[in-house]
Specification:
Elements lengths: L6 E2 L19 E5 L3 H12 L3 E6 L10 E5 L5 E5 L5 E2 L3 H7 L9 E3 L5 E2 L5 E2 L10 H9 L5 H4 L4 H8 L5 H6 L4 H8 L3 H13 L10 H13 L7 E4 L3 H15 L3 E4 L3 E7 L2 E6 L4 E4 L1 E4 L3 H9 L7 H9 L6 E8 L10 E4 L7 E4 L5 H10 L2 E7 L8 H15 L8 E9 L23 E3 L12 H19 L8 E2 L7 H5 L3 H7 L3
Parallel strand pairs: 2-3, 2-15, 3-11, 8-17, 15-21
Antiparallel strand pairs: 1-22, 4-5, 6-10, 7-10, 8-9, 12-13, 13-14, 16-19, 16-20, 17-18, 18-19
């Protein structure tokens, strides 16, 4: 089965083919949040002639993919981020956004491999796998040191089929109430194979297995592997996000007339004479035809709580039900000596204490590369997701160092010249039983839209791609409302290759449940 490299998402309620590309009337839009979701919405709307104002509570753009300036002890300034981000090649809509400022995507550096490291020297790789579903799975099993064909054919047939038969409705109906841990336990893979091929993958979405919906895990497996024709090896930005992404995007949008209000969050939203008024925390108001809320779960809940007449009871209840998952930690180290010359820029880990991955920034980022060349050192970043609440900074750092020294013995005698440590808890939770209550882009409040990586989209998405896709879906809803044509959106295969065999033809029900 040969799949197309990408598929066009077809809105169930498209405008007529002759709808104008540019808005034919003045439309004022306020976008709350300057992260990927908000900027994606602002970009599409500004290009189509809307008057857009972006309100961002921080002094920098990017949200959870942003970067800000700090200074090392030697006076060197650098751009600090919240951790490593992988730009997978099937992030079609994110890449379309980046092409606005870099048509050839020269800012992205391809990585040769995505190695996974486990206990006792275990190692898996996703490099060089076929891109065609089924063939990629067979090739992975064939070369895996932890899984054999006879092991694979012993897995639970029903649960194994579910992974290859992702369906946007049936998967949620059958597996959303099950935890990812229970699902993987029942799947029946050998312990080492489960740890190397599934545990590390599940943890990559910031949620711990015992509090993560199996339906969401199946969706992720489909989106990243079984339905993805581009492969699992990814690209990285060759410099800080602030200089490579956000500064150029801001210049591009300001050239389109977008106004930025930085350092000001939104407090509430009210309706006034047919318009929506966004009230900022400083008391100023923005009167708009439409509003896009591209904010975190916690910020969305605060805004809705302070806006008592917004939406209806069911929608407000659904917003209250959303949550954030356990904390994650990022520790960036500036070391006084290099790491081994054969090291990979990025490795995922499992079964190695709290550590989930390690990045060597000097191998792909220009700012860190310059520092390493000047000092003879290395810039290393260690990440952990889904940490137990209450674990302190000292314990996390001690564990991180232990695992770093075990995986990279050459760092044992290194001196830490500088470090930055972040412990945050603001990533969305995907808890069992909550799939049907996840917000969609449209809302019961006319002119109000929600975007972000926690929003349910009508085609498979995740993480940064979900944030961008939801922002563009919000923009398309506004364009459609005012008679303009929609921005093209792209996706992987929308259902698993066994979905029709297992669940039948669900095209009609998929269209019925789509929010746009």
């Amino acid at each position: 089965m040969i799949l197309p490299r990408r598929q066009r998402y077809r809105s169930p309620d498209p405008q007529a083919k002759d709808a104008p590309r540019i808005l034919t009337r003045a439309v004022d839009v306020t976008v709350v949040g300057g992260g990927l979701a908000g900027i994606a919405a602002a970009t599409v709307l500004a290009e189509r002639g809307a008057a857009v104002t972006v309100i961002e509570k921080e002094e920098f753009l990017g949200g959870r993919a942003g970067a800000w300036t700090e200074t090392l002890k030697d006076g060197t300034t650098f751009e600090m981020e919240r951790g490593f981000h992988a730009f997978f090649r099937h992030y079609y809509n994110l890449r379309a956004l980046l092409r606005r400022i870099d048509p050839d995507l020269g800012m992205l550096t391809p990585l040769e491999d995505y190695p996974l490291c486990g206990p006792d020297g275990l190692r898996e790789s996703f490099s060089g796998l076929p891109r065609t579903p089924v063939l990629n799975l067979l090739a992975l099993i064939r070369r895996s040191p932890t899984l054999r064909f006879r092991d694979a054919i012993r897995v639970d047939d029903t649960l194994g089929q579910a992974m290859m038969a992702y369906d946007p409705r049936a998967t949620v109906d059958r597996y959303d109430h099950v935890t990812a841990k229970d699902y993987l336990d029942r799947l029946g893979f050998p312990p080492q194979a489960r740890q190397m091929l599934f545990d590390v993958f599940a943890h990559s979405f910031f949620n711990p297995e015992d509090d993560f919906s199996a339906a969401e895990l199946i969706l992720m497996m489909h989106f990243y592997f079984l339905g993805n024709p581009e492969g699992l090896v990814f690209d990285v930005v060759d410099g800080p996000f602030s200089t490579k992404v956000w500064a150029p995007l801001r210049r591009y949008l300001e050239g389109k007339g977008v106004r930025f209000v930085m350092g000001q969050g939104a407090a509430s939203i009210a309706r006034d004479d047919g318009h929506l008024v966004v009230r900022r925390v400083d008391g100023a108001g923005h009167r708009s035809d439409a509003v896009v809320l591209g904010v975190t779960v916690s910020a969305l809940q605060r805004i809705v709580e302070r806006s008592p007449n917004l939406g209806d009871g069911a929608w407000r209840s659904a917003i209250r039900r959303q949550g954030v998952t356990r904390p994650f930690a990022v520790w960036r180290l500036w070391l006084d000596r290099p790491v081994g010359p054969d090291r990979s820029p990025f490795v995922g880990t499992t079964g190695l204490g709290m550590v989930d991955n390690i990045s060597l920034y000097h191998l792909f980022e220009d700012e860190s590369r310059d520092w390493a060349a000047r000092t003879g050192g290395a810039v290393v970043e260690i990440h952990a997701y889904g940490l137990d609440e209450g674990v302190g900074e000292a314990a996390i750092k001690a564990d991180f160092l232990t695992q770093l020294h075990a995986l990279y013995p050459e760092t044992r005698d290194a001196t830490i010249l500088e470090d930055r440590f972040l412990l945050r808890q603001d990533c969305p939770a995907f808890r069992p039983g909550e799939g049907r209550h996840r917000p969609r882009v449209t809302t019961p409040e006319p002119g109000l839209y929600v975007a972000g990586d926690f929003v349910q989209t009508p085609f498979p998405t995740a993480l940064m791609e979900r944030a961008v896709a939801s922002g563009m879906l919000a923009a398309n809803a506004i364009l459609r409302r005012y008679g303009a044509s929609e921005e093209p959106l792209w996706t992987v295969r929308p259902r698993g290759f066994l979905a029709r065999l297992v669940y039948g033809d669900h095209r009609r029900t998929e269209a019925a449940q789509a929010d746009l």
